[in-house]
Amino acid sequence: MGIVVQKYGGSSVATSEHIKAVAQKVKRTKDSGEDPVVVVSAMGKTTDRLLKLANEVSSDPSPREIDQLLSTGEEQSVALLAMALHDSEVDAVSLTGPQAGFRIEGRYGSGVISEIKPDRIHTLIEEGHAVIVAGFQGMNSLGDVMTLGRGGSDTTAVALAAALGAERCEIYTDVDGVYTTDPRIVPEARRIPVISFEEMAEMSWRGAKVMHPRAVELGALHGVEIHVRSSFDDGPGTVITGGKNLERLETRETVAGIVHDYDVARITLNAIKTGPGTLSKVFTPLAERGISVDIIVESGAGGGAADIAFTVKKSDFDETMRITNRVASTLDGAAEGEVDLGKVSVVGTGMLNRPGYAAKMFSTLGEAGIPIRLASTSEIQVTCVIASERVEEAVRNLHRAFELENVSDTEDNGEDYRV
Known about the structure:
Helix content: 25-40%
Shape: globular
Strand content: 25-35%
CATH topology of the domain at 3-174: Carbamate kinase
Strand order of the largest sheet: 3-6-2-1-9-13-14-12
CATH class of the domain at 3-174: Alpha Beta
Structural class: alpha/beta
Number of helices: 11
CATH superfamily of the domain at 3-174: Acetylglutamate kinase-like
């Protein structure tokens, strides 16, 4: 038996009764002979409530103080879970991110883990304790608390599993695994028993909310097997992994799932002068402001001019428009944008080597009368930007066209996995 890292999200610890139920899961892990190290998020909507308070007391709250404030949400959760474990006769110690050895660098609100010093955790495990760690946070070089941004508890858990050499990392949430698409849109969607790191990361980046993409990428980098399970039942969930379970060669299903995202805005620079360094002039100012760009499409307008279209998050739309308007004016062009958009993506490994997947996606949307604003492809995904009010319709049509409701839901019984 070895170390098992478990992560419980906000919905899993939203109430005192939920916290007691989590304590029982941790106790069962401890009683089985494994050493649980538990990462916990803030209770329910605590983070949203704290942000609302910050904006009520300040018109422009300091990013440093925001991190100080938000870190208290996780600190409440770990202390309460440790208390519940004590009540269940389990020796437990709660630690903040800094106490657990997390060193963070970067910007307040969106830090990245630079180092984990798990000596204290190892000592507590050797003493027989269950260790409860606050997710989402660590300490920077100034000794200040710094957070990892939304979804950071997933990243905390996988990084900690890598640092501790854990047997696996279990992510407990309010769903019972990863599905071929959102079952709220397509009731026939199937749970995927095993999925590759690459497919899960792409699905996460493209809109699937069950796992944070940074966490999946860390799992791939360090070989940490991730299990996604429900906090509220004991089902098998979904295993995110590489290795022998995915060696299905040409017999495997290529498409893993259909994912969607409503957080999409489009910017187009029309008829701008082109030449060496044009793209740098457009995108460097955005990078300097921390604005991430997704799909980029350039089309020639003739006469040394071109149109460049790209997507950003809706929250970045206004600032992106301000920047691109300035850039476009220096290049004798103009910028315009659109916010009522969404993305739908078909994700699966090996698509580039199997012709027809992009064509099937485009024809399916065309037959449904859904116009495509922008499109991008890679060996693992085809993504289309469409009007936001047509997203759910597109998801249903694509799930049916790729026959994902018929994917075998084979469990780990020695048979071939199909993702």
